[in-house]
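tool=predict chain=A
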Amino acid sequence: MISISINKLVLSLTIFACVAFASCNNEGEKTAGNDSTEAKTTALADTLKPISEPLISTIYTADPSAHVFNGKIYIYPSHDYEAGIPQDDLGSHFAMKDYHVLSMDSITGKATDNGVALDIKDVPWAGRQMWAPDAAFANNTYYLYFPVKDKKDVFHIGAATSSSPVGPFKAEPNPIAGTYSMDPAVFKDDDGSYYMYFGGIWGGQLQRWSTGKYVAKDEYPADDQPALTPKVAKMNKNMVSFDGKVKDLVIQDENGKPLLAGDSTRRFFEASWMHKYNGKYYFSYSTGNTHYIVYAMGDNPWGPFTYKGVVLNPVRGWTNHHSIVEVNGKWYLFYHDVQLSGQTHLRNVKVTELHYRPDGTIETIDPYK
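tool=predict ok
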């Protein structure tokens, strides 16, 4: 359980910020706010000091997927900007239209913005909203994986390729067959196999695929029923198609029962990430409207995974989305908050060190002190 002191303060700040700034993200924000609430939010924020600073301030970035390629750190984030679109519960104001890749020579070094890596106008099937991406290296090629709504406003996941980790990337003419929803995360196992994890509820449309086909109606399981699951598929060697069917990734409690839809502090919402440590698989994700990054552990990349605890307590802003990567023998958590703008659709990426306990569980990180 989280401690009463700083974590209650952080969670209160998140709730106040969500109301005061009236711009909670893609997946179901509620609009309200007044001067009194904003004053309370400002006063509360002044009592907190972030544990890390934004990696870059020349553009707004979020959802950082970090990788080490050839000894250098590359970060594949969303590129936030002010689109001037009114906010709604489906996140229409998150109207990102391109990707930039950040690079760092070391974990404490300066982050470099390498310019536009892929623009929505160069994706033949794309309609709008280029959300959280990921990347991989195989076949002497760099692959960028990205969710974007097609011209019928349905999310699918596309792939693009480049000879350079920073692009420019050339998009495949069609989305990856069998993909839907958002937030792709591609994991390379020790045997060289690659797996894609994806999915997100609310604005991510995962709830519209419960029949196996897209239905433009939001239907969620009852609170006492198993929660919607993230999805996993093995990648073919060409890295732009799946080897077999998409499967459910089951997250269970300590008694081996699937987490329930009403268990909003533990159940999956969005932001899949997979990493491996000491032979164990760690599936981490965001709980969305309760604002935690949490994790579950398993013995293989398909699951099931058993819920273990909180990686990161709530940040300022409505969303969070992360990655966990090893750099020179140490482990780091990349994440975002809204330190630069104070607005939840204009975010900034950060990094902090992550620590394991002797039993392999992860020490919870407080983003403020």
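DSSP finds two helices and 21 strands in the chain. The helical segments are 5-20, 35-45.
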